[in-house]
UniProtKB/TrEMBL annotation:
Entry superkingdom: Bacteria
PANTHER family given in the database record: ALPHA-D-RIBOSE 1-METHYLPHOSPHONATE 5-TRIPHOSPHATE DIPHOSPHATASE
Source organism per UniProt: Ottowia thiooxydans
Organism phylogeny: Bacteria, Pseudomonadati, Pseudomonadota, Betaproteobacteria, Burkholderiales
Pfam families: Amidohydro_1 (PF01979)
Name the UniProt record assigns to this protein: Imidazolonepropionase-like amidohydrolase
Span of the signal peptide: none
Domain Amidohydrolase-related: 55-393
Length: 419
């Protein structure tokens, strides 16, 4: 018999609105939302959860994670085998899920093997959307060799090699894109500018020629997929979007004109401001070199202003965290950090209905509507008034369902009180 659960009395957080709704019932049948409204009928056989005084909201979506990159810096991944990196990721994924992130998009490293293990029930994890290895030019953001290393594949069996593959010239870019698609990638990640963590490329460097970018996009689109791009500088962002890149990752140095082009073309931005703030707070404990910390400070200072530029232009703004294991505790706080430039309602939308569009799961994830997948959170407090209520999920998130199955429930089913 299909499991049915009726959540009663909680105020509904509909991300399309700017404030909580009235107390509402949510009926889950199997893995889907069957009904949402007051006084739902024909639910006599459902398990009842009295959530009076709580908020009921959709599961959160993080559109920029790296499930295998959990050493203090990516270069250190060369010191661990891939089996260790995979085992470590299962701990990280479970913690994400218990913080309310019921879906995540991995944008360099996450592969079909872990996605299949999650779907088979072997790993407790957010739902995974994976891109396989990111595609980087020699010397680009995905090239983490030290200068004394001549061959990239010398670390082919280590955790570092999970992150990226090198491809130079149109034929190699086409082949690399096709290979990740063959391996089941949901999307393709390409590196278009320098980065904070990469050791040898200047932050302002512009990576990949236009014909290489266009080739990657064409291959992905012919497969029915899309390309997301690491890009910090304004010119790197513009070159990507003008050649068909669908989502820009980071995007800290965008200008007004480029943002307007993004809005016109329907491109998304997935800012990752919390990772730069976390690096600042952790200092040496972040594992970043002095040169990386200098780059981190540049992008950190630009990030909040960039959100305002995107907002003015009408660009669709998602949410990403980009945090390694030692900084994962900041994942939820990143929402409140974005609220330094955006309204709480806009931030909530970024991690729900906007990110659902990013991962092409509109009306399936990111909102509680009939027919949607039953990823459901019960929360103490009103996130529209204070996003920091989400920053302490152990205390303020007493119940989590993923696809209708309880991940966590510390409520007394009779009266909704925490036990």
């Amino acid at each position: 018999m299909t499991q049915r659960t009726l959540i009663t009395g909680a105020r509904l957080l509909d991300p399309r609105q700017d404030r909580l709704g009235a107390p509402t019932d949510v009926l889950i049948e199997g893995s889907r939302i069957l009904a949402v409204g007051q006084h739902i009928q024909n639910a006599q056989d459902a398990e009842r959860i009295d959530a009076t005084g709580l908020t009921v909201m959709p599961g959160l979506i993080d559109a920029h994670v790296h499930i295998y990159m959990n050493e203090r810096n990516i270069a250190a991944g060369a010191e661990v085998p891939q089996t260790y990196a995979a085992a470590k990721s299962t701990f990280v994924l479970k913690e994400m899920l218990h913080r309310g992130w019921t879906s995540v998009r991995d944008v360099a490293g996450g592969d079909y093997g872990m996605r299949d293990a999650v779907e088979a029930g072997y790993v407790q994890s957010p739902r995974l959307f994976v891109g396989g290895k990111a595609i980087s030019q020699t010397g680009g953001h995905g090239d983490f060799r030290g200068r004394s290393e001549s061959e990239y594949d010398c670390a082919c069996c280590t955790g570092r090699a999970l992150f990226s593959t090198l491809a130079d010239g149109v034929p190699d870019v086409i082949k690399a894109t096709r290979e990740q698609l063959r391996l089941g990638a949901d999307h393709i990640k390409i590196m278009l500018s320098g980065g904070v963590a990469s050791p040898n490329d200047p932050l302002d460097s512009i990576q990949y020629r236009v014909d290489e970018i266009a080739a990657c996009v064409e291959e992905a689109e012919r497969w029915g997929s899309y390309v997301c791009a690491h890009a910090y500088s304004d010119i790197a962002i513009r070159r990507g979007v003008e050649n068909g890149v669908r989502t820009i990752e980071h995007g800290n140095f965008v200008g007004d004109e480029t943002a307007a082009i993004m809005a016109e073309r329907g491109a998304f931005v997935v800012p990752t401001l919390i990772v730069h703030e976390a690096n600042l707070r952790l200092g040496a404990a972040s594992g970043k070199s002095p040169s990386a910390m200098e780059k981190n400070e540049r992008v950190r200072q630009a990030g909040l202003q960039a959100l305002k530029v995107y907002q003015r232009a009408g660009v669709q703004i998602g949410y990403g965290s980009d945090l390694s294991m030692h900084a994962q505790q900041f994942q939820n706080e990143g929402l409140a950090f974005h609220a330094s430039s955006l309204s709480n309602a806009e931030v909530i939308r970024s991690a729900t209905i906007v990110n659902a569009k990013v991962i092409r799961q509109e009306e399936k994830l990111g909102e509680l509507i009939p027919g949607a997948i039953a990823d459901v959170l019960l929360v103490k407090g009103d996130p529209y008034q204070d996003l920091m209520v989400l920053a302490n999920p152990a205390e303020n998130m007493p119940a989590i369902w993923q696809a209708g199955k309880p991940v966590k429930n510390i409520l007394d089913r009779r009266n909704g009180a925490s036990v």
